[in-house]
Amino acid sequence: xxxxxxxxxxxxxxxxxxxxxxxxxxxxxxxxxxxxxxxxxxxxxxxxxxxxxxxxxxxxxxxxxxxxxxxxxxxxxxxxxxxxxxxxxxxxxxxxxxxxxxxxxxxxxxxxxxxxxxxxxxxxxxxxxxxxxxxxxxxxxxxxxxxxxxxxxxxxxxxxxxxxxxxxxxxxxxxxxxxxxxxxxxxxxxxxxxxxxxxxxxxxxxxxxxxxxxxxxxxxxxxxxxxxxxxxxxxxxx
Length: 238
Fold this sequence. Notes:
The protein is mainly alpha-helical. It folds into three domains: 1-52, no CATH class; 55-188, no CATH class; 190-236, no CATH class. Helix content is 53%, strand content 7%. The protein has a three-stranded antiparallel sheet, with no helix packed on it. It has a two-stranded antiparallel ribbon with strand order 4-5. β1 (21-25) and β2 form a beta hairpin. It is elongated.
């Protein structure tokens, strides 16, 4: 075969198998395949690799279970995105982690399993590796292969563990704020309802207005210069 025809045939193969063939450049997954990639591919083929995503057998069962809970309506029109079927599952997971507060990404207060899931979501970049190896390992399950299914037990177990862990990860920051609020109540000996805490602290601050000589503390006791609020390390508690 002549050298000039190879890129054309390769392009046809990649387009035809867009849902089960992944293209990598310098080890990085390419979701959108453009002309610039083919130009580099012709000149530097050693920089590219192709990987087959086999979503059959047990993997198909796992994929079906996870797709049911993770499918994002905004991903219906993926256009030129390659491996769209696989990305309907992994893209929402990556987006979920990206939007988490910094505290949640670094906290050690999560249980072992949610913490392991959060770690693989932050570090695993290959979609198939994430879905069929890293996530099952984080859930203390064996890797998901292409063999015949097991009546859906593994798929349902992975789905259940993932749902519970994602819920714990999502609420971790809210639990932190709740704990901080309880500590503030205990520190100030507040007996009023939670919704009345700000008013309670405002009344107390009024007694100290004009009596504080520390410049950094004056705004706390001056209701005309600063709205009452409670801050902790730069976080607004409410």
